[in-house]
Design a protein that fits this description.
5 domains; Neutral Protease, domain 2; globular; 31 helices; Immunoglobulin-like; alpha+beta; single chain; 5-stranded mixed sheet; 10-stranded mixed sheet; 33 strands
Length: 1019
């Protein structure tokens, strides 16, 4: 998916919308998806035109006009339907076929779709007989016979057909063909139509499904229903779609694989008396009115789409309002659709303003025009993915498209911009050029991740996008890819994961760095033009890079095909060790990095040509020129070791963190780097490198290759650091410490240390004054929120007092505005420090507000309570879909389970309500609760809790509970090894008699002498 809501973070993410480092570390819930994803398609040739194009299909307050019916549909409501899985022969029964084409999970290449006609009629009222919501449809597919075969294989899932629904016609010969039999092979969701005579190679055929029906369920897949209450208080039901990866097949019978591209004619029908209208990928072409059972239905006929994959089809029947804008040349119409309340509140205005800019920026950057006449985007109340990049009609969960200048936070503004950039990037990378199969999904998602930063930079160049990439994607990729259970970018099972998104984007950023922006971009322009409206593999992309590099005379000694393959065909990444080995020599060695000391390489999965070694573009600067604008590059051509000739006392490697690798510096060199960091000229080292030094040292200490004390020593320099990404990197790194030490006797001392460097730096520097809310200071405001959040979380009393005072003022006057920059942190701190009254007030506000972003903040804040009975009640509320939407249940449960005060409450609740949880929120959301809690478990008692619940869960949960056990044992081992070391570094002695404070002034005296008011206490 363009953007999938994959992560279950422990709080609303402030720095983007990607999977948290902590979620990546926990290998519990790596989602293997061949059933949930996105892509996008955009083209180069002139857009389709039609003589009777309708200029405006969705007035803000009225439905479109209509004409007299020309082609009334079959009265499906009086037709007898047959449920395929039970009434048609099941080819997957006892006499399952041995036909390899049928048992193969991939469709054969004997038939190639050319054009579909899809006619859908969702009924937005319950059926009086079944009590279900139903949609009716008919469709046809024109296809070419490329290899003679006596059967037609298509995909179909959960669709009901009439007894004689299918008609097959040979368009070349001009005759109808006899259908011998129709079967259904459930394992591959195949509809098998056997013909009396095989198709003739080169002939064109048309298969029509005259009538079918399916449930318009609330399962967030295929064509489904979403419900909400409008501004008048009326309950509304709308039809919406999510086709990636396999939702199309439960909407109409089709060749539902990304490489089977075709054009589409879409017709959507809806009752004319309910104030609905229809939207699809293309503009409306004409309307007609039809009579069905005495009720008038409006039918909207849309222009033919460009050639595209089935998973990019989008349909909607709704009553939404919108705002409209146009690209700079006036050629592309953009509309942002949403419920009436957010539209009238101005929450679509921001998206409406930046979307044309982003389209223009990307069209210019890649010299490829957006080929459709419109670019619609819609915020949907119920949407399973984060967003889906359907060509011409991008769909979003509300939180990722709507933005309120007063209510939404500074993080929301950045996140909305990023997600729009990501989805519109897909219009070129994914829609125009599509991955040949899901095994290559990184060609869609990695590119969208990389290109979204180009888009965001085009919106505001002050937002430091390259710095934010390091935190939001490079570091995410490194943590996602540091275990032997990871996977390569190119993988047969097609994972939609941090690897596909963040590592894919990071790989592209690294390639751009060593190829140069001009060569890199020119190759991509050629790639988009050469592969337009078709599908691509990694080899196709690599050849365009190689050809452009040859043309430009670059990297002639570097085997580019092998370079690219070493990063895309094998999992993992290297750790480079940098050490001085002579007066003028520095040696760099590489090894496969695994973060768990007990993990080992899985050589059965190693790509044989590389065997966990990489072609590494090692970039570096010497200490004497560290502030310079140039750097050197030394290529490691699969060597385990190279030597660099230099007399520099130290070097900084991986300049601006462009490479996908970690660096461990030998002790003497690390000491020189620390001297530089603790000097007044520490900013000579780039912000990206300062952040990556922190990220690397903590990851390396987790792996056992470096002591935890060395990692902590490096952080002392932060007392003078005021930039965002070094601080957010540090705070994320010590999240693991906070989890494992949350109930340790040394936690207070650890928190004191964090405050001793945080308060005099970013907390005091940025303060609470958030008057300047201009876009140019967005990153500074993000840092202010980060500082306040951390100060309150680690117990700085002044911060907590300010938060509780602001909360009190809010309770006394609901119109009182708490700055959205730090609102979530204020709410959390005040609820944690408060009791029932504070929690109930937040809940009342949650029920009253409309903003999805505000609701997210409140759901997180309410998880911060310290009262077990309140958290238990909150868990009950989450299980009620009338209180918390289905799409929000998993995230909310992870908030509760992820809190120190919530971890045991969550586990007890699951123990006592197992069947109820599975029947209401399902296994995925239940696992979200337990996984979040388990990440805080680190004792034998915690292990016993897992074993007790394992007995209730049963054998179906064996793998999940084994992963919980592994997580806890890893945490226990880390705690046993490192808790005494941390205590010693802090100057704390923990004895059998209890806790004794023997803190040594030498550990913190220098900081306190410089900043005597750093803490509200004296040592």
């Amino acid at each position: 998916m363009g953007f999938d809501d994959l992560s279950l973070t422990e709080r609303p993410k402030k720095n983007g919308f990607y999977i948290s480092k902590t979620a990546a570390i926990a290998s519990v819930l790596v989602v293997v998806v061949l059933l949930v994803a996105e892509g996008l398609l955009v083209g180069l040739v002139g857009r389709p035109t039609c003589d009777n194009v309708v200029d405006d299909i969705a007035p803000k307050t009225t439905i479109p006009s209509k004409t007299t019916s020309k082609m009334p549909p079959t009265d499906a409501s009086t037709t007898k339907f047959t449920t395929m899985p039970t009434s048609l022969p099941d080819a997957g029964g006892p006499d399952a076929p041995t036909d390899e084409e049928i048992t193969n999970s991939r469709l054969p290449l004997s038939l190639t779709p050319i054009h579909y006609k899809v006619d859908l009629r969702p009924v937005l009222e319950k059926d009086v007989v079944t009590g279900m919501y139903i949609f009716y449809g008919s469709s046809s597919v024109q296809y070419n016979c490329t290899n003679s075969t006596g059967k037609v294989l298509l995909h179909s899932r959960n669709l009901n057909y009439t007894e004689n629904s299918f008609v097959l016609y040979d368009e070349t010969e001009g005759k109808e063909l006899t259908i011998d039999s129709i079967e259904f092979f459930r394992p591959n969701e195949y509809l098998i139509i056997r013909t009396a005579t095989p198709c003739v190679e080169g002939n064109t055929y048309n298969l029509t499904a005259n009538e079918f029906q399916g449930e318009l369920a609330d399962d967030l897949n295929g064509i489904y229903r979403s419900e909400y209450d409008n501004i008048e208080g009326d309950h509304r039901v709308i039809a919406i779609s999510q086709m990636e990866t396999t939702g199309a097949r439960q909407t109409f019978p089709c060749f539902d694989e990304p490489s089977f591209k075709a054009t589409f004619d879409i017709i959507l029908r809806f009752r004319t008396d309910l104030n609905y209208y229809a939207i699809s990928n293309m503009p409306a072409m004409y309307y007609e009115a039809t009579d069905i059972d005495g009720t008038e239905w409006n039918s909207t006929h849309f222009e033919t789409t460009p050639i595209m994959s089935t998973y990019l089809l989008a349909v909607s029947v709704c009553d939404f309002e919108y705002e409209e804008a146009f690209t700079a040349d006036g050629n592309i119409q953009t509309r942002i659709y949403a419920r009436d309340i957010p539209v009238r509140n101005g929450e679509v205005t921001y998206a409406s303003s930046v979307s044309p800019t982003i389209l223009d920026v990307l069209a210019t950057h890649f010299n490829v025009s957006y080929p459709l006449p419109k670019s619609d985007q819609m915020a949907v109340p119920d949407f399973g993915a984060g967003a889906m990049e359907n060509w011409g009609l991008v769909l979003y969960r509300e939180i990722y498209l709507l933005y309120d200048e007063v209510i939404s936070s500074v993080y929301n503004k950045y996140s909305v911009t990023q997600v729009i950039g990501h989805e519109l990037a897909h219009q070129w990378f994914g829609n125009l050029v599509t991955c040949e199969w899901w095994s290559e999904i990184w060609l869609n998602e990695g590119f969208a991740t990389f290109v979204q930063y180009i888009a965001v930079d085009g919106v505001n160049s002050n937002w430091k996008t390259d710095e934010l990439f390091v935190k939001d994607d490079l570091q995410v990729a490194l943590y996602a890819d540091d275990s032997s259970g990871s996977h390569a970018l190119v993988h047969p099972q097609g994972y939609f994961s941090d690897i596909s998104y963040s590592k894919g984007g990071s790989f592209l950023r690294m390639v751009e760095d060593f190829m140069g922006t001009t060569t890199f971009t020119n190759a991509l322009i050629n790639y988009l033009k050469g592969m337009a409206y078709s599908t691509a593999t990694h080899d196709d992309l690599f050849q365009y890079w190689i050809d452009e590099a040859d043309a430009d005379g670059l990297l002639t000694d570097v085997p580019l095909q092998q370079v690219f393959e070493s990063w895309t065909l094998q999992m993992g990444f290297p750790l480079l060790t940098v050490a001085r080995t002579g007066t003028n020599a520095i040696t760099v060695t590489q090894e496969y990095f695994l973060i768990n000391p007990d993990d080992s390489p899985n050589y059965e999965l190693a790509y044989p040509d590389y065997n966990y070694t990489w072609y590494v573009p090692f970039t570096y600067k010497g200490g004497s020129v560290i502030s310079g604008s140039t750097h050197d590059t030394a290529w490691m051509m699969l060597e385990k070791e190279i030597q660099i000739t230099t007399s520099e006392e130290y070097i900084i490697g991986n300049i601006d963190a462009k490479g996908i690798y970690r660096i461990q510096y030998h002790a003497d060199m690390l000491g020189k780097i620390e001297e530089k960091l603790n000097s007044t000229t520490f900013t000579d080292i780039s912000t990206q490198n300062r952040a990556q030094l922190i990220d690397d040292i903590f990851a390396i200490s987790r792996s056992g290759r470096e002591s935890v004390e060395v990692a902590l020593e490096l952080t002392k320099y932060l007392v003078q650091e005021i930039d965002y990404i070094p601080w957010t990197t540090f705070l994320d790194a010590i999240t693991y410490f906070e989890r494992i030490l949350g109930r340790s006797v040394i936690y207070g001392d650890f928190a004191d240390y964090v405050l001793s460097i945080l308060v005099p730096s970013i907390y005091n520097h940025y303060g609470w004054d958030d008057i300047d809310t201009s876009d140019d200071v967005l990153v500074e405001r993000m840092t202010r929120g980060l500082a306040i959040g951390a100060a309150c979380e680690y117990g700085y009393q002044e911060c907590i007092d300010n938060a509780t005072d602001l909360y009190r003022q809010w309770m006394e006057n609901s119109s009182f505005i708490i700055s959205s920059t730090y609102r979530t942190d204020v709410l959390c701190a005040a609820i944690r420090a408060g009791g029932e009254a504070e929690w109930n007030y937040a809940w009342d506000q949650y029920l009253a507000v409309d903003s999805a972003q505000y609701k997210t903040d409140l759901r997180y804040a309410m998880s911060c309570s310290k009262d077990p009975w309140i958290l238990n009640r909150y868990l009950e509320f989450v299980l009620d879909p009338d209180k918390v939407r289905q799409q929000d249940a998993s995230r909310t449960l992870s908030y509760i389970g992820g809190q120190e005060y919530g971890k045991y409450v969550a586990w007890a609740f699951a123990f006592n309500n197992w069947d109820k949880m599975l029947s209401t929120v399902g296994s995925s959301a239940t696992s979200s609760l337990l996984s979040a809690a388990t990440r805080r478990f680190s004792t034998e008692f915690d292990l016993s809790l897992v074993e007790s619940l394992r007995e209730i869960a049963g054998v179906g949960w064996t793998g999940t509970f084994n992963s919980y056990t592994n997580t806890i044992r890893t945490n226990m081992a880390w705690r046993e090894e490192n808790e005494p070391k941390i205590a010693n570094w802090l100057g704390v002695s923990v004895t059998a008699e209890g806790y004794k404070d023997t803190r040594k002034m030498s550990k913190i005296s220098e900081i306190e002498l410089l900043h005597p008011k750093a803490l509200n206490k004296k040592y």
